[in-house]
Amino acid sequence: MTERLQTEELKGKTLPPGSVIGVLGGGQLGRMMALDGVRMGYRFVTLDPAPDSPLGQIAPQITAAYDDPEAAKELASRADVITYEFENVDAGVAALLEERSYVPQGSRLLYTTQHRLREKAAIEAAGVPVAPYRKIASLADLREAAAELKLPCVLKTVTGGYDGKGQAVLRREEQLEAAYAELSSNGVELVLEKFIAFSSEISVIAARTPSGEVKSFPPAENVHVNNILHLSIVPARIPAEVQRRACRLAEKVAEGLGAVGLLAVEMFLTEAGELYVNEVAPRPHNSGHYTMEACSTSQFEQHIRAVCNLPLSDTALLSPVVMVNILGQHLDEAVRRAAERDPLAESLGIVPKLHLYGKSVSKPGRKMGHINLLCGDVEDALEWVEQTNIWRP
Questions:
Q1: Which of 194, 212, 240 is the last residue in one of the domains?
Q2: Are residues 57 and 137 in the same domain?
Q3: CA 268 → CA 48, 154, 276, 393, distances in Å?
Q4: Please, which of 34, 108, 216, 261 could form a disulfide with 247 given CB 3.0 to 4.6 Å?
Q5: How far apart are the C-alpha atoms of 51 and 56, rounded to whole Å?
Q6: Are 304 and 33 in contact (CB under 8 A)?
Q7: What sign does the dihedral 82-88-94-95 (CA atoms) show?
Q8: Domains in the chain, number
Q9: What angle do CA 90, 300, 161 make, to 5 degrees?
């Protein structure tokens, strides 16, 4: 009872530097969060099943499964506030942590964002448009929905799935049966979404504090290769009015969902200038890595400020920037190039900033790091990416 009262007393209060931040998950997002947080005077502890996690290399780690209740209790006992660095955390464990510690993001946000149908309904309830969609419980449902929405459409599992996994683009009626058989094989629910013919994919990182302050970062224009984020281009090559509208939509979603901390809001922009929210992530996001050098505040510092209820900091863009991901197949050449003088970067006026994640195993398709390319014009940075040949197909 006393422990619960202490947790209730913390709600809405500021947790100053010196406090211990517990992180559920020890991946690269937690690592970069801690690197900024330690600079600010915070201490960290993480729970992760991998014995040599990226965050565990620089902070104390409880090595256990995410759904281990005893490990969750230990994390709660060692932390003043708890956050998570990826959304596929067991919502039941997050609820247990809420009972024993202070989890300002809460388990309800996880419950919503872990399920595409609940997420879409919540975004719509906030007054923000999403692509037309239908719940799919049978092959007959799929045939009916495809006829109603008109192909092309995208069939997705409502839980799990990332980097293009757990989904299929349907362009012809004869694809329906095979796609349904494949995606429904584990008994998961499905959703069919109308395919949006977009001119750009963009994302906005918004932050919200427990007291309701909201700020967003400049929109990033995102380029994917094989369903994995390849580039984030900032400023996005879209009209300024659309950028402002995207920020307003992201902030509206954060307020509508009652988010605390960061909320990454991914959107499609059509040729007609319409914006549709595709999905959200309640955490730091790959497309926000550009903020680490290019903005007056990084997304990681802003997340810490939000969950600790500090005033949110300025999000101004200080330099045009292109973020390029380093996957396993790019790692050796990216590291070699970073260790040498780079005449190409010098000639283009590019300042490359390398970030590696400390992952012990490298393999093709796995995110191993990224480079932020500070530049005078994003076209120069894109030219550097093209000419280095590190990211050739």
A1: 194
A2: no
A3: 33, 14, 5, 25
A4: 216
A5: 8
A6: yes
A7: positive
A8: 3
A9: 35
**Is the pTM for the entire model greater than 0.70?**
yes
> What is the residue range of 347's domain?
198-388
How distant is the alpha carbon of residue 249 from its chain centre?
17
Give the integer Cα–Cα distance in Å for 344 and 161. 38
CA 113 to chain centre: 12
Cβ atoms of 206 and 216 within 8 Å: the answer is: yes
* Same-domain status, 322 and 239: yes
Per-residue tens of pLDDT for the chain, all 393 residues: 234 334 445 556 899 999 999 999 999 999 999 999 999 999 999 999 999 999 999 999 999 998 888 999 999 999 999 999 987 777 677 788 888 889 999 888 888 998 999 999 999 999 999 999 999 999 999 999 999 999 999 999 998 766 667 899 999 999 999 999 999 887 788 999 999 999 999 999 999 999 999 999 999 999 999 989 999 999 999 999 999 999 999 999 999 999 999 999 999 999 999 999 999 999 999 999 999 999 999 999 999 999 999 999 999 999 999 999 999 999 999 999 999 999 999 999 999 999 999 999 999 999 999 999 999 999 999 999 999 999 998
Q: For residues 148 and 142, what is the distance between their CA atoms, to the nearest angstrom?
A: 10
Q: In Å, how far are 267, 330, 369, 390 from 393, measured between CA atoms? A: 26, 11, 18, 9
Bridge partners of 381, per DSSP, are none
Length of the chain, please?
393
Asked if omega into 49 is within 30° of 0 (cis), the reply is no
* Paired tokens of 151: 């192909």
Residue 148 per-residue DSSP state: H
